[in-house]
Amino acid sequence: MKTLLKLYALFFKLGIINFGGGYALLPLLQKELVEKRGWATEDEIADYYAIGQCTPGAIAVNVSTFIGYKIKGVLGGIFATLGFISPALFIIFIIATVLNQFADIPQVQSAFKAMRVCIFVLVVSAILKLQKKSIVDKITFGIAIVVLFLAIFTPIPLFVYVIVAGLIGVGVGWYRDKHKKVEQSDDSEKKEEE
User: Fold this and answer.
1) In terms of domains, do 13 and 93 share one?
2) What is the distance between the alpha carbons of residues 49 and 18, in angstroms, rounded to a whole number?
């Protein structure tokens, strides 16, 4: 029960400070889960984001559920998800009741503009951290360039890119595995001839 409460408290905290959607949460998850607690690796976080992009719902909520499930099973997933969405429900309720009264105030508009800049920087920071472990060869670099171009200039849904990239990865892995076996059999034949 103690771990479940820790999960709820952690994701409640992340839910309070998460502005800008799922990608802005990435550097916070890396710091809290990878660096501070060791509950996940950077690769696992990247995998959860990829899966969260392909599944229905908000990415941040999906990732919270996956991480909670990894740490403490079904109950962990429930507690992490509830922890993450609780602040948003409360904050959205308050904002919805009072925003119309303050939306036209220049200071409020300036605050939103400044928050958007901060979110942009957090997302770029997360991208740079992920890039180091994600773009590891010519194929992954090529996938990154093609997806970047298509994401900017086409209306294709984002989950399609993740699925197609996964299929390419399966194909490349299969090809490399097959090619490696052929090389190994050639090497063993050469050794036998010697």
Assistant:
1) yes
2) 15
Contacts of 125 by beta carbon, 8 Å cutoff, 6+ apart: 27
**Domain end residue (candidates: 116, 134, 152):** 134
Looking at residue 78, its pLDDT comes to 93
Residues 158 and 129 in one domain: no
Average pLDDT over residues 174-182: 81
**Would you state the structure tokens that stand for residue 149, as one six-digit string?**
């171009």
Contact 39, 71 (CB under 8 A): yes
Number of domains in the chain: 2
Are 128 and 151 within one domain?
no
Q: Return d(Cα 18, Cα 10) in angstroms, integer.
A: 12
pLDDT in tens, 3-34: 889 889 988 988 887 765 666 677 777 888 88
pLDDT confidence tier of residue 82, bands split at 50, 70 and 90: very high
- Same domain for 56 and 141, yes or no, is no
Amino acid 74: pLDDT = 93
10 Å CB burial of residue 70 (0-12, 13-18, 19+) is middle
pTM of structure: 0.54
Q: Are residues 191 and 149 in the same domain?
A: yes
Asked if residue 169 and residue 110 are part of one domain, the reply reads: no
Query: Does residue 61 contact residue 84 with C-beta atoms inside 8 Å?
Result: yes
How far is it, in rounded angstroms, from Cα 63 to Cα 80? 9
Instruction: Let me know whether 123 and 166 are in one domain.
Output: no
